[in-house]
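Two proteins were folded this term; both appear here.
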Amino acid sequence: MDATYRADLRELNELNFQRFDAKVEQRFAQADAKVEQRFSQFEVKLESRLTEVERQLAELRSDLRTEFHTALANRHTSLLRWMFTFWIATVLAVLGLYMR
């Protein structure tokens, strides 16, 4: 009888382990699905935010380019004014020396 009980107990334990193993695998599959879903949501949010950052950087780049060209044009205009003022003063001084 001992051998029969042992065999029955072994078979019962194996069946219980198989059910336990199936439940564990099912729970791991559910956890994997949740993690996968959260990663997909994270990827969507990340892509959205990166797109927004890229748009803002493009806008900033455009603004900086405009400001740089405006500043460069103003500097160029100022330099031309000083140059003409210097040359007119120089020509008038030279003419003044020759007219004496």
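Next, the second protein.
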Amino acid sequence: MSKHQRGFTLIELIVVIVILGILAATALPRFVNLQADAKAASMQGLAGGLRGAVELVRARWLVTGNTAAATVTTADGTVVAVGTGSGASGGVPTVVGILNALGSTAGYATATAGNVVTFTPTAGPAGCSVTYTDTNGAIVVNATAAVC
């Protein structure tokens, strides 16, 4: 009566480990830059939120029909300061107004200089940013994986 042993030889196990090592070495670089991609996507999301806030506040201001109104009360009761008149800044949230309209800027540092507010991720480089200008509601995004 002969007994047959079943199992893997040492060489087979080494070959499997080497193949897994090669697969891990080729897949790892794809996942290394995920943090920068996530920060860039977060900044793009913030820019979208800013655009939405500007348009909602401006629409609310236009509906009132009063171009001299310096504030707009949103549906949730938030008072947002806006530019007045019929020019490019009419109904566009001011720097303070856009911060009120957003509600929360958690996760972002804000720096205000005159009529411009710049948002950067709290744990990210200064080059990764979204800038809002209240004279015309312009939003400039500087957020790619290369800078974030």
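The beta strands are 71-73, 79-81, 108-113, 116-121, 129-133, 138-142. The radius of gyration is 26 Å. These notes refer to the second protein only.
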